[in-house]
Specification:
The complex is a heterodimer of chains A (217) and B (251).
Chain A: H1 2-19, H2 29-40, H3 50-81, H4 96-99, H5 101-119, H6 137-145, H7 148-175, H8 182-211
Helix pairs in contact in A: 1-3, 1-7, 1-8, 5-7, 7-8
Chain B: E1 3-9, E2 18-24, H1 33-46, E3 69-70, E4 73-74, E5 95-99, E6 108-110, E7 113-114, H2 117-124, H3 146-156, H4 163-167, H5 174-185, H6 194-207, H7 218-222, H8 230-242
Parallel strand pairs in B: 1-5
Antiparallel strand pairs in B: 1-2, 3-4, 3-5, 6-7
Classes of the chains: A mainly alpha (217), B alpha+beta (251).
């Protein structure tokens, strides 16, 4: 759970950083090149898309193992403490994000599926209709985020992602043994806040700027 | 003061329980929570009704026998045991819900009494040191560093009441298990069996059907002894290290 979770957070940070290439005012040249480079990384030493597929398989395995651990934890929790336990249980810790990890996780899974269908598989073509897959990545992003409801959907989905990171980041380090003192816990929880806030702001900058016409058009 | 109690009544492990309402008048705010229950039981006995069964022993907050969920919080949320909770913590006319610890691994025996022998089996799995008997060694024969001795003592204060399990949304007993692990791992006497202990106790914890820890932190908040969440990280560090040790589980 912890190791795969941190791996996925690491991916999110890379993904966010890659998105910032949208901000370069060159009509998406750099962004498109970056997108192409991801597919050709290591070429000609490696065959076309080999690195990409290794990357995808590692990410997918991390996600599958993460979900498998979550299911196991959930089943054990349900067996020992499932159903309605107390007439009205009061929680003493500020633990909303922690207690709703499973629901946040399910929302994120659905979101990731839609996200991949939209931008990788091009099955969902929000804001454009060009079934021959000829539109450049930069233009596809522009098209999608020119629709207000797409931006709104992403804004809501990112809340789920960042709530998940808010607890997951510190919890992963605690599971790996880093919660060594009250001071360490404070540092980890602060870092979790920073990571969650950074991811939210970082991921929402390009869509919002596109919606308000700062990027493109 | 006057209170309205809604108490979980359950005849035995196999029957289904329910909350039963008991109005109680003439409660002194100097009474402990258990004394208030004693008062109710006297009245019930006089009326030829079955008194409410609840666990208690020392009533000084050090034995770990008592413990009920009060208004949805294990031990009532005053960072102490139920016996050390006093009626002055409640307002006159309060409605007080009293329920037993609820967890699959802690089956209800009767009313507010639950079976916590799962904790005993976790201790039996390794929560001890093997020492040959003989005359007691001199206290200064085995020096322990101050910092480690303090951590060991803080964790040794765990009285095994089970509030951590009752409060944990996952029904995990990791705070209990980690308190025992940390207590012994900090001291020289605990070193020889340190890594087999952590493997065995965690395996027994899981075999008892307790849930896994997801670092929510409710356990530490209700712990009457203030066992910190750091103890669970100590357990995790020892568990990871144990993977690189040849020690199997304790037999």
């Amino acid at each position: 759970m912890a190791v795969t979770g941190l791996l996925l957070i690491g991916f999110l940070l890379m993904h966010m950083f890659g998105n910032f290439k949208m901000l370069i005012p060159d009509d998406g040249k750099e962004f498109n090149e970056y997108s192409h480079w991801l597919r050709e990384f290591g070429y000609p030493a490696l065959p076309h898309k080999l690195f990409l597929w290794i990357f995808r398989i590692v990410l997918l395995s991390a996600a599958v193992l993460h979900i498998w651990s979550a299911a196991k934890l959930r089943l054990r929790a349900n067996a020992n403490a499932g159903g309605k336990r107390y007439r009205s249980q009061k929680f003493m810790e500020k633990s909303y994000a922690a207690r709703t990890m499973i629901w946040g996780g399910i929302l994120i899974l659905l979101f990731v599926i839609i996200h991949i269908l939209q931008y990788t598989a091009e099955v969902l073509r929000f804001g454009y209709d060009n079934p021959d897959r000829s539109l450049a990545p930069f233009d596809r992003v522009l098209a999608g985020f020119s629709e207000w409801w797409v931006v709104l959907f992403y804004a809501i989905a990112m809340v789920a992602v960042c709530m998940h990171v808010l607890h997951g980041f510190w919890s992963a380090f605690a599971t790996l043994g880093a919660n060594a003192s009250a001071g360490a816990r404070k540092v980890l929880k602060t870092l979790a806040w920073i990571a969650a806030a950074l991811l939210y702001v970082g991921f929402m900058i390009p869509p919002v700027l596109i919606l308000f016409g700062v990027i493109g058009r | 003061m006057k209170v309205t109690l809604r108490i979980w009544r359950q005849a035995n492990a196999n029957s289904t329980g329910q909350l039963v309402t008991y109005p109680l008048d003439g409660v002194s705010e100097d009474m402990s929570f258990l004394e208030m229950l004693d008062m109710l039981n006297e009245i019930l006995t006089e009326r030829n009704e079955e008194p409410v069964a609840f666990d208690h022993d020392c009533r000084e907050g050090i034995c770990g026998m008592c413990g009920v969920v009060i208004n949805g919080v294990a031990h009532g949320g005053q960072h102490t045991t139920t016996c050390q909770l006093h009626m002055r913590s409640f307002s006159d006319g309060a409605i007080i819900d009293i329920e037993p610890w609820k967890a699959g691994a802690f089956p209800v025996i009767k009313d507010l009494v639950v079976d916590r022998t799962a904790f005993d089996r976790i201790i039996q799995a390794g929560g001890y040191i093997s020492a040959n008997t003989g005359s007691a060694p001199d206290a200064h024969a085995t020096p322990a560093p101050k910092r480690e001795a303090d951590i060991a003592f803080d964790n040794a204060t765990c009285i095994g009441c089970g509030a951590c399990v009752a409060a944990c949304p996952n029904g995990s007993a990791m705070l209990f298990t980690s308190a025992k692990i940390t207590h012994l791992a900090m001291l020289p006497q605990g070193q020889p069996e340190r890594y087999s202990r952590v493997k065995s106790m965690v395996a027994q914890h899981d075999a008892e059907g307790f849930g896994g820890c997801t670092n929510i932190g409710e356990c530490s908040q209700v712990c009457p002894k203030g066992i910190p969440l750091e103890s669970i990280s100590q357990l995790n560090r020892d568990l990871v290290k144990s993977l690189f040790k040849g020690d199997g589980k304790a037999s």
